[in-house]
Amino acid sequence: MTSYKELGLVNTREMFAKAIKGGYAIPAFNFNTMEQMQAIVQAAVETKSPVIMQVSKGARNYANGTILRYMAQGAVEYAKELGCPNPQIALHLDHGDSFEICKECIDNGFSSVMFDGSALPYEENIAITKKVVEYAHQYDVTVEAELGVLAGVEDEVSAAESHYTRPEEVEDFSKRSGCDSLAISIGTSHGAYKFTPEQCTRDPKTGKLVPPPLAFDILHEIEKRIPGFPIVLHGSSSVPQDEVDTINKFGGKLPDAVGIPEEQLREASKSAVCKINIDSDSRLAMTAAIRKHLAENPSHFDPRQYLKPARENMKKMYVHKIVNVLGSDNKL
Ligand SMILES: [Zn+2]
Predict the structure, then answer these.
(1) What span, in angstroms and rounded, lies between the C-alpha atoms of 317 and 320?
(2) What is the pLDDT of residues 62-76, one digit of tens each?
(3) pLDDT digit string (tens) for 82-129?
(4) Centroid of ligand 1 to alpha carbon of 234 (angstroms)
(5) Which phi-psi region, left, alpha or beta, contains residue 285 (left: φ > 0; alpha: ψ -120 to 50)?
(6) Is 94 a catalytic residue?
(7) CA 167 distance to own-chain centroid
(8) Cα of 188 from ligand 1 centre, angstroms
(9) CB of 257 within 8 A of CB of 192?
(10) Coil, strand, or helix at residue 98?
(11) pLDDT tens, 154-182?
(12) How far apart are CA 87 and CA 10, in angstroms?
């Protein structure tokens, strides 16, 4: 058993309490590689932002869970080395699909876990979430639960159709499960193709897709029923069109990739939404930089030559999200 406290990590309780009070949201960035980890830490230190580094099932399959845990431990030390004496970094399990995987992560130094029972029948979702909460709280680890289903495919989490969270269920669910935060479905979606062209309108000037707006009425109804309770938005990448254009210009093929407009995420950050998950935008920033670099430097074959601009581009994106979208800068 390794407690996250020994690793210098923090759970999400205080982060979320401050974020709700302050009208901002904590960034939750997924990481799979050293370059992503470095870029996240550099951005958080530079902007003096708390940050959640999260690990999905796909990340564990790709990089190995043990390695990712040690990378998070390294992230704390790296932040200190960069001049941040008290970094606020949480290591979070994204979309845990069983009690066992949540327990394994808690035992290995994670400070926060998600149990995603959103595809299960309501009572079963409550029962397993509660079991995870009872185990996690013994070690002061915080637990995120989910009600409502997000569409999209990402890292082995997939659903063909979304259904919105039912506000009339949230009070009963949060009370009986004992969860510390709740992921809801109000129209965000996983992946870089969040909406089909049929769900969108098209900007006549640029020809780009304009996605349907988030269901703010449902969010506000949920806030009314569980005032001050931390709300989480998954699938909240914006799919920046300049990165998509760069990818397509240098040999990629991402037609009609579309995400959640940043103005809507900024608006959500001011509410009880206190954690916003961003994964695809980091993938796009990395891929755009690598494609551009290799196209412009055909003789390069040292991975450091193209991973360096990739890391810089991801860091730039993380800083932008923290400062201009979520508002979590200068909150340490
Ligand atoms: Zn998710």
Answers:
(1) 5
(2) 999 999 999 999 999
(3) 999 999 999 999 999 999 999 999 999 999 999 999 999 999 999 999
(4) 4
(5) alpha
(6) yes
(7) 22
(8) 10
(9) yes
(10) coil
(11) 566 666 667 899 999 999 999 999 999 99
(12) 9
Closest CA to 286 of 114, 44, 85, 31: 31
Instruction: Give every strand in the sheet of 189-190, ordered side by side.
Output: 157-159, 151-154, 189-190
- As given in the structure block, the two tokens for residue 288 are 């755009």
What is residue 136's three-state secondary structure? helix
The span from the CA of 24 to the CA of 238, in Å, is: 17
pLDDT value for 131: 98
Q: Mind listing the pLDDT tens digit for each residue in 33-91?
A: 999 999 999 999 999 999 999 999 999 999 999 999 999 999 999 999 999 999 999 99
pLDDT of residue 157: 61
- Catalytic pick among 94, 116, 155, 279: 94
Q: How far apart are CA 267 and CA 261, in angstroms?
A: 10
Q: Are 313 and 286 in contact (CB under 8 A)?
A: yes
Q: What are the Cα distances from residue 318, in Å, to 59, 232, 292, 293?
A: 19, 18, 20, 20
Collect all residues with Cβ–Cβ distance below 8 Å to 82 and sequence separation of at least 6: 41, 42, 45
Give SS3 for 201. strand
pTM (2 decimals)?
0.96
Q: Look over the chain and give the mean of its residue pLDDT values, rounded to a whole number.
A: 95
Quote the tokens at residue 313.
Answer: 């581009």
Distance 250 CA to ligand 1 centre (A): 29
**Overall residue count recorded for the chain in this entry:** 332
Tokens read off for 48? 């003096």
pLDDT tens digits for 192-222?
A: 988 888 888 888 888 888 888 999 999 999 9
Ligand 1 centre and the CA of 296: distance in Å? 35
The count of C-alpha atoms lying within 13 angstroms of the C-alpha of 46, restricted to the half-sphere facing its C-beta, is 15
